[in-house]
Every structure is written in structure tokens, then in C-alpha cells.
Design goal:
The protein is mostly helical and 328 residues long. The chain is 55% helix and 4% strand. The protein has a 3-stranded antiparallel sheet, with no helix packed on it. It is globular.
Length: 328
């Protein structure tokens, strides 16, 4: 039985219409997939930024504190956060490790702070200065300030200033609170009280805005700390992370732990062409090809992005090709 020609024509028209619809559908699927993949790639480039935003929000997530002008004193305040984040911040959900350490060392009955020191050592071994590059709210603030359009100055000729933060750690965080005490045998938290700009930014300013009692209590010490904060803000616009490089005692502690940290930087010498692109890209003034786990390296990943041969990567674990290490 033969099929009439007009039937064949109708079937052919229907088939072509279906094929055309399929092509349009497939094309649309591929376009959507391409758009999604492209968006994911763009977000991966900004992964560090998203981590900084998220961690800052988590460590200062007690929003009610900002509106009521009160410091959160819940259970989580017994735990130390990894980065420099003031205890007196109305939104702070955890304690600052530097402030907590000084509080114990400067108490009337001197006790070495095994708990806080143990936490710092653990964090240092697990992450090192990755904390500075990804998890510190004040470090992120300095980066944002540095993005403000203005003349920029290199800190390569100011490398000796790096050692100031070790002096701050030893003298202001450890020795002075333990040795300079009042009649009751209590020492002041010298770093927090006289030098830390984060205390003014996160603590004094937001609390004074909503609490009249605190506003009336502000005096010369607040003015001094405010001047330090303004100096750091201005310096951060011109220099990259000046407080982190020169004054932060927490950064000094993590810097000591950087060489033994499990979170390491690795350079594949077989791929490296010694072009110097990584050294030029590093804003912490580190040549990673010479010292991959330099004390000043904050694991920001700028060297990884700049390497034309993909010779640099993160690695978690010890050894160049150890079985227990994992390339990231």
C-alpha cells in the first residue's frame, strides 16, 4: 500500500517542525549551561572575597547588639575567633584571642593561658597566615580601603618595619600585662587599651552611638585610639595592609607558625620559568619561588593567579609529594 504524496509532505513538515523545536531547545539549554558555568567561574575568582564577607558576618552576627548598644555575653563568647575581632563589638559572637590572652596574663593571680595559647597554636598549625588572608575582618577592611583610587606606595623598602609586630606581641601582649600591675596585682591589656584600632572601630564607636552613658565616658584615651585608627585608615589607602605587616601581634604569632602550618604553598620547579610574575603580583613583598612558606605570606592566592605556567598551588599537608598531602 503506497502513501499518498500529500501525506508524505505533511509528515515531513511535522518532522521538520519538531527538529527545529529540538534544535532551539538544545541551543537554549547550552546557552543556559554556558551562562551558569561562566557565572561559577567568575565566582570562583572572587572566592576569597566571599569567604571574607561570610566570616566577618559570622563573627559579628549578633545584630541586636548594634541596635541596643549592648555587648553580647552568651556562651559562644567563651570561644576565641581566629582573626582580630574586638570582644567589645556589639555584634561579636566570639572573643578576640589577643584580648583574652591579656585578660588572663594580667589577672591578679598570674596564670599562663594554656587554653588560649593552645587554640592559637592549633589554628597556627592547621591554617597559619591563611587566617590573615581569609578570616580576619580587620585585614579585609584594610584591603577594601586600599581599593580606594589614590596614589599607591610600595612597602618593599620598608621591610625592616615587619619586625615591629613581634616586639608588639612580646612587649605589649605578654610582658607588660604580666609585669606592670597595680596595687591589686592586676595588669592592663596594654595592646587592646593603647594600640589596637579595632577596639575603637568595632567597640567604642558603635557603642557610643547608641549608649549615652558610654558617650559621656569617652575621654583622652578614646581620642588617642581614634587618632591611631585614622592613621591606619589613611595608611591603608596608600599602603597594602600596613597594620598586618607592621603592628598586628596576632599576625606575628601566625607568622611564626607559617613554616610548620599544614596549609602550605608549593611551587612546581619543573613548570616554573622564573619569569618573576608571582613576585611582582605579591603585595606582601614575598618571592614565593624562593620561600614558599614565608612568614609574611597570607595565602591570598595572587601569585597563583599571576603564574602563566600554573606552577604554584595550595597544598594541605607536609612534603612536596607526600602521600598524606593534598593539592588544592
Amino acid at each position: 500500500m503506497s502513501i499518498p504524496l500529500y501525506r508524505i509532505s505533511q509528515i515531513s513538515s511535522v518532522w521538520n517542525a519538531l527538529a527545529s523545536d529540538n534544535r532551539k531547545y538544545i541551543t537554549r539549554i547550552y546557552k543556559e549551561r554556558f551562562f551558569i558555568m561562566n557565572w561559577i567561574k567568575k565566582q570562583r575568582k572572587h572566592l576569597r572575597l566571599w569567604v571574607q564577607v561570610l566570616f566577618t558576618a559570622l563573627t559579628n552576627g549578633y545584630v541586636i547588639g548594634f541596635t541596643e548598644g549592648k555587648i553580647y555575653r552568651g556562651t559562644s563568647k567563651k570561644l576565641c575567633v581566629p582573626g582580630l575581632n574586638c570582644y567589645s563589638c556589639p555584634g561579636a559572637a566570639g572573643a578576640c584571642p589577643i584580648g583574652s590572652f591579656q585578660a588572663v596574663v594580667g589577672s591578679s593571680k598570674f596564670r599562663f593561658s594554656y587554653y588560649i595559647t593552645g587554640i592559637l597554636i592549633l589554628l597556627g598549625v592547621l591554617l597559619g597566615r591563611f587566617i590573615c588572608g581569609f578570616l580576619c575582618p580587620f585585614g579585609w577592611l584594610q584591603e577594601l580601603l586600599h581599593k580606594i583610587p589614590s596614589p599607591k606606595c610600595s612597602t618593599k623598602r620598608l621591610k625592616p618595619l615587619r619586625y615591629l609586630k613581634y616586639a608588639v606581641l612580646l612587649i605589649m601582649v605578654v610582658l607588660l600585662p604580666a609585669l606592670v600591675v597595680n596595687e591589686m596585682g592586676m595588669g592592663d591589656p596594654f595592646f587592646c587599651k593603647y594600640l589596637c584600632p579595632q577596639g575603637v572601630l568595632e567597640g567604642a564607636i558603635p557603642l557610643s552611638l547608641t549608649n549615652a552613658g558610654i558617650r559621656t565616658a569617652l575621654g583622652k584615651l578614646f581620642s588617642w585610639k581614634l587618632c591611631i585608627l585614622l592613621a591606619v585608615v589613611v595608611a591603608s589607602v596608600v599602603f597594602y595592609r600596613p597594620f598586618c605587616k607592621w603592628l598586628c601581634p596576632l599576625g606575628a604569632f601566625y607568622a611564626v607558625m607559617n613554616r610548620v602550618s599544614l596549609f602550605q604553598m608549593r611551587v612546581d620547579t619543573d613548570k616554573c620559568v622564573s619569569c618573576g610574575a608571582c613576585a611582582r603580583a605579591c603585595k606582601m613583598d614575598v618571592d614565593i619561588t624562593k620561600t614558599p612558606n614565608h612568614a609574611e605570606c597570607i595565602r591570598c592566592g595572587m601569585c597563583i593567579k599571576s603564574c602563566p605556567t600554573k606552577a604554584i598551588h595550595y597544598q594541605y599537608g607536609f612534603g612536596d609529594k607526600a602521600d598524606n598531602s593534598k593539592e588544592i
